[in-house]
Amino acid sequence: MGEKSIIAEDQGEESVKSLWNTPFIFLVLISFITAMSFNMIYVIISKYAMGVTSSLTIAGFVAGVFSIAALIIRPFAGMTVDMVNKKTLCIIANVVIGVSVLGYAIFQNIPMLFFFRIVHGFAFGVSSTVNIALVAKYIPRNRIGEGLGYFGLGQVVAQVISPPMGVYIVDAYGFQLLFIVIALLSFIGAALLTLLRYPKSEKTEPKGKTKVTIHSLFAKEVMVFAAIGGMFSFGNGIVSSFLLLLGQERSIANISLFFSVGALVLFILRLFVGRIVDRKGLTLVVNVSLVVTAVSMFLIGVAPVLSLLLVAAVLKSIGQGAGQISLQTACIKRVDPSRVGVATSTFYIGADIGQGVGPMIGGAISASFGYTALFVVCAALMLISMIFFNLHQRKENTINKKSASIFNNA
After folding, report:
1. DSSP string of 304-334, one letter each residue
2. Which of 34, 102, 116 is nearest to 69 (CA)?
3. 103 contacts: CB under 8 Å, gap ≥ 6
4. For residue 12, what pLDDT is reported?
């Protein structure tokens, strides 16, 4: 008997006919497990750092250095994903995540906490990149949008249930047990991945020496899509950072319902938005998404009551959910299958920058002009982004038509 696996024979990208094949379902489950571990630690790391140090500034740096590390590793992660066995790389990333989280529990001092946060950020940057590249191998090429939409369902569920679960474990049993639980989830994800049969036909060894070039680190053909995707993350970063403060200033009770309603809408949206993306095309979906997101930002900026904020939550989830899935799908489809890794990392670089820069710019604007101005400016930036996106799409269509004309005349 051969190696035990969840499927009996090799399955390459070209042979995938059905979306709901066994490896795809298996990877959705693994994604849910790993997302649970990430979201449980995301909400409590600042509190844990404050227990180690009395400085709020240092605690903030401990929390933020994770994202910086993930951003730095992204280009190299994308290049590596396209060079090596994606399954093996995903296993290694999950193991390193588990080890780094155990490091939080064992070494309770700031220098080591910084070290393991950086290692964790590096591993997460690799993991989130290789996850998409790996699952794309088991999705029919003409159903990428639908497949990515379903793939994200587990992550959405994890975003809803894991933060309160993490807080409960900390309050009832302490940080150390939480870190052990998170590490075990990462190790379980890695163990389950060993059961996945990976296509033996894929060439995982590059010919000759692989040079580190701009082309190997970034997919320039999808940079505009990454930038537009980064704008959605820009808005998300602003909402995450300033909505609670806005609610406090306006005396709006139960404002946390904004996030619960948004998560519910996003979950429902992912059940069908991928099919819309695959059938209606990129330009229409992104344009509608940017307009809807702009309206949601404007409503947040002027909302005096919770009910209007909940309407904004619904619109934000529709706009951001559909927009980011469509752009990520376009990034994968735009490149050769051998460069899915670098295309994915390029898209996430845009998201990382947007998520990181948003709170910085938002803090400066809100400090000088208030929260209404902040969200109105964010809405305006969404509409400006739409103009640039359409100019790019028009240019691309013109180039494609000229190329087709030359080909036909030849």
Report:
1. -SHHHHHHHHHHHHHHHHHHHHHHHHHHHHH
2. 116
3. 112, 115, 116, 119
4. 46
pLDDT at 1 over 60: no
CATH code assigned at 295: 1.20.1250.20
Same domain, 257 and 120: no
SS3 state at 25: helix
With a CB cutoff of 8 Å and minimum separation 6, the contacts of 57 are none
Residue 45: band (very low, low, confident or very high) from pLDDT cuts 50, 70, 90: confident
Domain stops at, among 200, 235, 256: 200
Per-residue confidence (pLDDT) for residue 5, from 0 to 100: 44
Whether 48 is in a domain gets the answer: yes
Residues 257, 190 share a domain? no
As given in the structure block, the two tokens for residue 30 are 């693994």
Q: For residue range 240-267, what is the model confidence (pLDDT) as tens digits? A: 778 888 888 899 988 878 888 888 898 8
**What pLDDT does residue 8 have?**
34
Please state, as a whole number, how many other Cβ atoms lie within 10 Å of the Cβ of residue 234. 25
pLDDT grade, residue 3 (50/70/90)? very low
Residues 82 and 231 grouped into a single domain: no
Cα distances (Å, whole numbers) of residue 348 to 65, 354, 372: 17, 10, 29
Question: Does the residue 3 lie in any domain?
Answer: no
**pLDDT, mean of residues 59-77:** 82
Q: Does pLDDT of 60 surpass 80? A: no
In a domain, 169, yes or no: yes
Query: What is the token pair recorded at 167?
Result: 């807080």
Contact 178, 97 (CB under 8 A): no
Pairwise CA distance, residues 74 & 128, whole Å:
9
Range of the domain at 334: 217-397
For the chain, what is the domain count? 2
Check whether residue 139 and residue 40 sit in a common domain. yes
Spatial CB neighbours of 203, under 8 Å, sequence gap ≥ 6: none
Residue 136 is given by DSSP the state H
Q: How many CB atoms lie within 10 A of CB 56?
A: 11
State pLDDT tens for residues 200-240.
Answer: 545 444 444 556 777 778 888 889 999 999 999 899 888 87
* 179 lies in the same domain as 237: no
- Backbone CA torsion sign across 205, 208, 211, 217: negative
* Residue labelled with tokens 């679960």: 165
